[in-house]
Design a protein that fits this description.
The complex is a heterodimer of chains A (293) and B (423). With 293 residues, chain A is mostly helical. Helices cover 76% and strands 1% of the residues of chain A. Chain A has one domain: MetI-like fold, CATH 1.10.3720.10. The longest helix of chain B has 21 residues. Chain B has two domains: 196 residues, D-Maltodextrin-Binding Protein, domain 2 (3-Layer(aba) Sandwich), CATH 3.40.190; 203 residues, 3-Layer(aba) Sandwich (D-Maltodextrin-Binding Protein, domain 2). Classes of the chains: A mainly alpha (293), B alpha/beta (423).
Chain lengths: 293, 423
């Protein structure tokens, strides 16, 4: 028996070895390197000098770091829950459709998701263009005048959030649709026989049964949006980058523009800690809530 | 079908033989020229390859302009995977030298290229020097200029006897002229990129220089009265925006569109927009236009310029063979001597011989603004200056809000100094 399980361990070890090796080499090792880099004053390329916790002290006293923390949190707040809610509502509506109509509508919602960020940037940049943009016909009555939203700080993050939801929502919609299709028909039939109202059906059947999908969507969205970079970087170029800075952009700026690899690594460590912390927290909170059902 | 197949086979065989024959010395070339000038550069490369078939072949690749290009160059040179020759902004050379990315050019190299300090304008040659050593060969100078709509200016009586704009010098005078154009029914007197303080740095830096002001260098940014002079320069643009003669928060493509559609009578932009105008004019879609040196708003003429130069990367662990090195120098020499064609992209050829040629003097509006190379100012020599640098970034943050009167000019330049001092 012992011999048997030992050989099983061996087989298991052999089977997971490629993954462990590649994971260790491509992920763990660079992460440790980054950690080490964060304690040095070094350029982007080449060796640096050990400076202990200097980079961390500098970071906590850096006004831009706190701006980036605030902007990233604000962006997460504006996208994660609203985006997931929008995806669920759209999925509920799309699931009521049938046949080719459903396919076409679904494709329309999914289309933005396959666009690369550069295309998204160009589309929205032209739509919101101060002189020639079509969206200014909506903004002008609302704000009283034409607004260059990418240069007006209070407009920046909400607009970036809106376009991000538009861009990335297709995937969440698909997940929700899959979740909705997994709910057995009989439950709805039974509810209909019992004379349940639409709201009761949603509250007692649909909502609890798609809760796992909701948790999945929220977690994916949270991690994704904490790492926001492309949109903000593209739209802020040449403008007030310090006021609209987000964390990954701050890392990029320090590493590639200001050639401070050490300090950039320090901010990256901070982001790493934040992402891990948030994910654990969210997972715990959502699991606890889900468990009560 | 059979004949076709045979023909195809023969052609392929021929092409292969030719391919083998030409592979004598290849020169791997990287540039960041993606726009109208990129098309012209590809033509120059093709011409060179045709002329030197059998001895040297340039293998060109165009990469993304700005930070991505320079990051790639820096990282690939550090591992010995850089190209044999590349385009480089003169303003980025101090940073590249501090990172050990560029190979120094020796006196023998200059002799082999038939070029030297006298072949270029003083500031242009100075711009490729770091501590008395040269790291690149200037190919062009690309300043900013004032584009004007000749029809509109003539209507407002702003065209002189020589057919060029007149009465634009002096800060108040210039604003009055723009106002006059606006009153005459043109929507804007002047378009410029007011949404991008990093881009507008070129304009504001010119006005700083017109007051004999300097930005300074590492450790000593905007010292003494330079801070006030910079605030004056920012205020110039802020006043245009406030008066409504310049549109607020306007991005680059919109500024060009406002000018080419006739809604703005003037535009401040780089010479690289000359092909846009020339092409529209050739299609009969443009008014009479021209481009001149920036009007003198303060004490003396001065305009921002940068230079596209050719540099040889210092590929770690790899010394090019003498044959390869000679081929690279030959490429640079050929390009410099053929830079007349490059001038059609708007850029002023750095090679003084080319600039003095009759062909160049006949080229309009290039020949009109080329004289500004006598009054040009390059970026301050600092590892933090140059295109897409921390200095441009600081300008983006400070100038964008100030040009559009969201913060006053003084506060903006104080913040800029603080940002620069923190570098």
């Amino acid at each position: 028996m012992t011999k048997n399980s030992r050989s099983e361990y061996l087989v298991a070890a052999v089977l997971v070895a490629p993954f462990v090796l590649i994971f260790g080499w491509m992920f763990i090792y660079p992460t440790l390197q980054m950690l080490q880099l964060s304690f040095t004053k070094s350029p982007l390329i080449g060796a640096g000098t050990w400076v202990g916790f200097d980079n961390y002290i500098k970071m906590f006293n850096d006004r831009t770091f706190w701006t980036a923390i605030w902007n990233t949190s604000y962006f997460v707040l504006l996208t994660v829950v609203p985006g997931t809610a929008a995806a669920m509502i759209i999925a509920l509506m799309v699931s009521r459709l049938n046949g080719w109509v459903q396919s076409i509508i679904l494709a329309a919602f999914f289309l933005p998701y396959i666009l690369p960020v550069t295309v998204v940037y160009l589309i929205w940049d032209w739509m919101l263009n101060l002189q020639f943009g079509i969206a200014q016909f909506i903004i002008e009555p609302l704000a009283g005048k034409r607004v260059n939203v990418w240069r007006t700080v209070p407009w920046f993050m909400p607009m970036a959030a809106l376009l991000t939801i538009w861009w990335t929502n297709g995937f969440s919609i698909l997940l929700f649709l899959a979740g909705l299709r997994n709910i057995p028909r009989e439950l709805y039939e039974a509810a209909a026989l019992d004379g349940a109202s639409r709201w009761q059906v949603f509250r007692s059947i649909t909502w609890p049964l798609i809760w796992p999908v909701t948790v999945l969507c929220l977690t994916i969205q949270l991690i994704l949006q904490l790492k926001i970079f492309d949109q903000v970087y593209l739209f802020a170029q040449g403008g007030r980058t310090q006021a609209t800075m987000v964390l990954v952009q701050f890392i990029y700026e320090q590493a590639f523009q200001k050639n401070s690899g050490g300090y950039a690594a320090t901010i990256a460590v901070a982001l790493f800690v934040i992402v891990v912390g948030f994910s654990l927290l969210q997972f715990q909170v959502l699991r606890a809530r889900g468990g009560n059902k | 079908m059979k004949t076709f197949l045979k023909a195809a086979l023969v052609t392929t065989a021929l092409l292969t033989t030719v391919g083998v024959a030409t592979a004598a010395e290849t020169v791997v070339w990287w540039d960041f020229l993606g726009g109208g000038d990129g098309v012209r550069m590809k033509k120059l490369i093709a011409d060179f390859n045709a002329e030197n078939a059998g001895s040297i072949e340039i293998q060109g690749t165009t990469l993304d302009w700005g930070v991505p290009f320079y990051t790639k160059v820096q990282t690939s040179a550090a591992v010995g995977e850089g190209p044999d020759v590349m385009t480089y902004h003169a303003s980025r050379i101090p940073l590249a030298v501090s990172q050990g990315t560029l190979a120094e050019l020796s006196a023998d190299d200059w002799a082999a290229m038939g070029l030297g300090p006298d072949s270029f304008a003083k500031e242009t040659f100075e711009a490729v020097n770091v501590d008395g050593k040269q790291y690149a060969v200037p190919f062009d100078t690309h300043p900013i200029v004032l584009y004007y709509n000749k029809d509109k200016l003539a209507e407002a009586g702003l065209i002189g006897a020589d057919g060029l704009p007149a009465g634009l010098d002096g800060k108040d005078n210039f604003l009055a002229a723009l106002q006059k154009l606006k009153d005459g029914g043109t929507q804007y007197g002047l378009a410029m990129t007011t949404a991008d303080g990093g881009f507008a740095f070129r304009t504001i830096y010119s006005y700083l220089c017109q007051q004999n002001g300097v930005i300074g260098t590492d450790g000593g940014w905007l010292e003494g009265d330079n801070l006030d002079k910079l605030a004056n320069a920012v205020q110039v643009v802020a006043d245009w925006v406030k008066a409504g003669v310049t549109p607020e928060y306007t991005d680059y493509p919109s500024a060009v569109a406002l000018f080419t559609s006739g809604e703005a009578a003037n535009m401040i932009n780089g010479v690289w927009e000359v092909p846009t105008m020339a092409d529209l004019e050739a299609q009969g879609k443009l008014f009479n236009w021209g481009a001149i040196e920036l009007p003198v708003l303060f004490d003396r003429p001065c305009t921002y310029a940068d230079s596209h130069a050719f540099a040889i990367p210092n590929n770690a662990g790899k010394t090019p063979t003498p044959e390869k090195h000679a081929a690279v120098l030959k490429v640079i020499r050929w390009m410099s001597e053929h830079s007349l064609f490059w001038a059609t992209a708007g850029h002023v050829p750095a090679n003084a011989t080319v600039q003095a040629s009759d062909e160049y003097k006949a080229m309009q509006p290039q020949a009109t603004y080329a004289k500004l190379t006598a009054n040009q100012v390059f970026d301050p020599k600092s590892v933090n200056a140059g295109v897409a640098s921390p200095l441009f970034d600081a300008a983006g943050n400070a100038f964008t809000a100030a040009m559009n009167n969201e913060v006053d000019a003084k506060t903006a330049v104080d913040e800029m100094k603080a940002a620069l001092d923190a570098l």
